[in-house]
Amino acid sequence: MPRKPPAKQALKRKAAAALLGCAAAGATAQPHAQPQSGYPAKPIRIVVGFSPGGIADVTVRQAAPKLAEALGQQIVVENRPGASGAIATERVATAPADGYTLLAPTAADTVIPVMRPKLPYNLERDLAPVSLMAVAPFILVVHPSVPARNVKELIALARAQPGKLSYGSVGTGTTPHLSAEALKMMAGIDILHVPYKGGLDNVIANVSGLVDMVFASMPSLMPVIGSGAPRVRALAVTSMQRASFMPALPTLHESGVTGYDRSSWVGVLAPASVPRDIIAKVNAALAGTVNTPEMKTAYGKQGLEAQTTTPEQFAAFIAGQLAQNAKLIRAIGLRPD
User: Fold this and answer.
1) pLDDT tens, residue by residue, 94-147
2) Cα 61 to the chain's mean position, in Å?
3) Phi and psi angles of residue 257, each rounded to the nearest 5 degrees, phi first
4) pLDDT per residue over 282-315, tens digit each?
């Protein structure tokens, strides 16, 4: 008969089996399973994919002091411009999932995946939605020489003279470009696209009469659309609702382009495996910061509409933006890289 192992040896074997069982359980645990009740214990970095002064940068920097108060830690804004924001997005998609590196995504992040299907990251798979922060409607403006006082007159003019009118943008595949193309498709008009390289170049071209119209942000139009003798004529805003910063200006939707709704926007994303309690904590801090009268006023001066969401709502919003852009890009025949 085989000899019975000594008691000590049996205990060792039981302990080893228990440890193996724990290891196996840990290997199948979900990445969101570990709560981080001590978060945040150090400064939080929010990465912006554009240069200082842009919509994303302004949105985050204006909220940063109050957001830091709400979270009890410093907010560091890191600008990583390049590739229409893709460099910053990849940086955060591959960052440690501890909640200390976040991304300020923009509308461009839902265009890039359509134009560049071979990206090293997947926006919906590799990043977790936290919240929307602000929406920035564009303003459709025309040069004063254009004989159109409203959108209906502009559409009638374009239909009477196919291909004669022109619009400027900040580049092919950008949000202003797609905003104009959406108008062309929905209104059934033909307008020539003239792309420019810089964010203000298209506005300067419109003021100079080199192009007949542009879709531009409020900050870029402030010097030419203010009181006195405006150097361009504003016809409509691109959001579904009127903008609080220009309440007298109608929307394209109410001007006859039914269902038109395209704007730039800024939100917050985290690496995909960040624990859910951290997502919830940052979401609550954002809501408490952005939805204050003080922040709404500050955002309004920059042409921004304060708007926060739940993580689930932001996920649905991003999915909708990706689908909308994919449909439009296919319809106008833009070819992915």
Assistant:
1) 999 999 999 999 999 999 999 998 999 999 999 999 999 999 999 999 999 999
2) 15
3) -95, 80
4) 999 999 999 999 999 999 999 999 999 999 999 9
Cα(149)–Cα(146) distance, integer angstroms: 8
Question: What's the token pair of residue 132?
Answer: 């929307």
Residue 169 pairs in a beta bridge with 195
- What are the backbone angles phi and psi of residue 193, rounded to the nearest 5°? -90, 130
The H or E element spanning position 209 is: none
* The model's pTM: 0.85
What pLDDT is recorded for position 31?
A: 41
Per DSSP, the chain holds a count of helices (H) and strands (E) of 12, 11
Angle between helix 55-71 and helix 276-290 axes, rounded to 10 deg: 110
List strand residue ranges (DSSP E) for 105-191, in order: 127-137, 139-142, 166-169
Q: For residue 337, what are its two tokens?
A: 């890289």
Taking the mean position of all CA atoms in its chain, how far away is CA 10? Answer: 60
CB atoms within 10 A of CB 240: 16
**Residue in the block written with tokens 């004669």:** 164
- What is the predicted pLDDT for the residue at 224? 83
Residue holding tokens 């299907």? 117
Cis amide leading into 230 (omega within 30)? no
3-state secondary structure of 51: coil
Q: Taking a C-beta distance cutoff of 8 angstroms, is the pair 47, 64 a contact?
A: no
- Specify the length of the chain in residues: 337
Structure token digits, residue 164? 């004669």
Distance CA 180, CA 160 (A): 18
CA pair distance 135, 129, nearest whole angstrom = 16
- Here the tokens at position 216 are 């531009």
- Can you read off the two tokens belonging to residue 102? 């976040």
Tokens of 221: 């139009």
Report how far apart, in Å, the C-alpha atoms of 149 and of each of 141, 202, 216, 265, 330 are: 10, 21, 18, 28, 32
Q: How far apart are CA 124 and CA 252, in angstroms?
A: 30
- pLDDT > 70? residue 56: yes
Convert the pLDDT of each residue in 133-171 to its tens digit.
Answer: 999 999 999 999 999 999 999 999 999 999 999 999 999
